[in-house]
Amino acid sequence: MKKGFKAVALLVVIMLFAAVVAACGKDNKVSVGIVLPTKDEPRWVQDEQRFKDALKGTDYTTDILFSQGSSAKEKENVETLINKGIQVLIICPQDGDAAAAAVESAKKAGVKVISYDRLITKTDAVDYYVTFDSVAVGKAQAQYLVDHAKGSGEPLYLYAGAASDNNAFLFFEGAWSVLQPKIADGTFKIANSSEAEGLKGNATLERDQMSKIIGQITTNWDANEAKNKAQTHLTAAAADMKGDVAILAPNDGTARSIADVFGSDKDVKSFVVSGQDAEQASIQYVIDGKQSMTVFKDVRNLVKDAMGMALSILDSKTPETTGEYDNGKIKVPAKQTDVIVVDKDNVKSALIDSGYYKASDFQGL
């Protein structure tokens, strides 16, 4: 009898232990996995905290990993998150094409994939895309250059993001649609791209045509590469390619580097330079008159849209979308977030009054 009692008691203990382990496993399960490109840029570190804040007050959990500029690390991060039981993956790819293999693993595991800010290309394993309207960003940058052009025949220096980033093409597509008519009518003359010069009669560009131009003017989103390229271009520039100039810079990090180079050339009388991201350092440059404008993409709203989409999926609802993007394999349903042009005139209203930055973050505001 004693033996039987001991056996039953042991069985009960084992069952209780198994239940506790199962419960712990369930509690430790991660609902939303997030993979961001690098911890070396302020933008993505800020996104990390915003994503964490967006899940506060819900029953869901998240784990955020960084790929540090490596597509191999990115794939490893996705596998790690799949093993943690994620139901939704939010991923900003390091390289749009290379990320396809990572998200295909997620799809096989039954995970819903949201491409964040940058589009993952050439795969059907992307369920949704959350983005700023990248074509609109390029148009806004170019329109600012057009609106501030001085006379005719103004030298135009073109720069672009990384050829591995689909957004770089969308930004350039938008910019070209605004700049090309002004190149054709003589307002601008292209200073630093023989490929763009050869295609200046084309109102629209095919992907391979854009690829050739971007190949010449890419900064790879790297400030040092942008600086070196700008120095090379100015060194080679004839006198008629200096004076008052317009510069299409793809983002704030590259804009500051390019502005520093053009600002130190005594033969450049003035320049108008674009940017995007409203980075704190660039807002100070705008206030100081060193950078002309930036396109403010309120990342708080982008994070909110991405996490809202993830929560809809977790709650078995259909996420709201406002458009679609062709990724070379399928048309991906997308939610687009609005952008705002910021220059010296509206820094305070756009960035301080909205609570994005504090006035004490800047000098001379």
Order of helices and strands: HEHEHEHEEHEHEHHHEHEHEHEEEH
Query: With helices defined by DSSP (H or I, 4 residues minimum), what is the helix count?
Result: 13
- The chain-level mean pLDDT equals 92
**Number of DSSP strands?**
13
Profile the largest sheet: 7 strands, mixed
Structural class: alpha/beta
Helix content: 40-55%
Strand proportion, as a percent range, falls in 15-25%
What is the fold's blueprint, element by element?
Elements: H1 2-28, E1 32-36, H2 42-54, E2 62-66, H3 71-83, E3 88-91, H4 99-108, E4 112-116, E5 128-132, H5 134-147, E6 154-158, H6 166-184, E7 188-190, H7 194-198, H8 207-217, H9 223-236, E8 243-248, H10 252-263, E9 268-273, H11 280-288, E10 293-296, H12 299-314, E11 323-326, E12 331-337, E13 340-343, H13 347-352
Parallel strand pairs: 1-2, 1-3, 3-4, 4-5, 5-12, 6-7, 6-8, 8-9
Antiparallel strand pairs: 10-13, 11-12
Helix pairs in contact: 2-12, 3-4, 5-6, 6-8, 9-10
Structure, described:
The protein has 365 residues and is an alpha/beta fold. It has 13 helices and 13 strands. The strands form 3 sheets. The chain has a 7-stranded mixed sheet, sandwiched between helices. A 4-stranded parallel sheet has the order 7-6-8-9, with helices on both faces. The chain starts with a helix and ends in a 13-residue tail after the last helix.
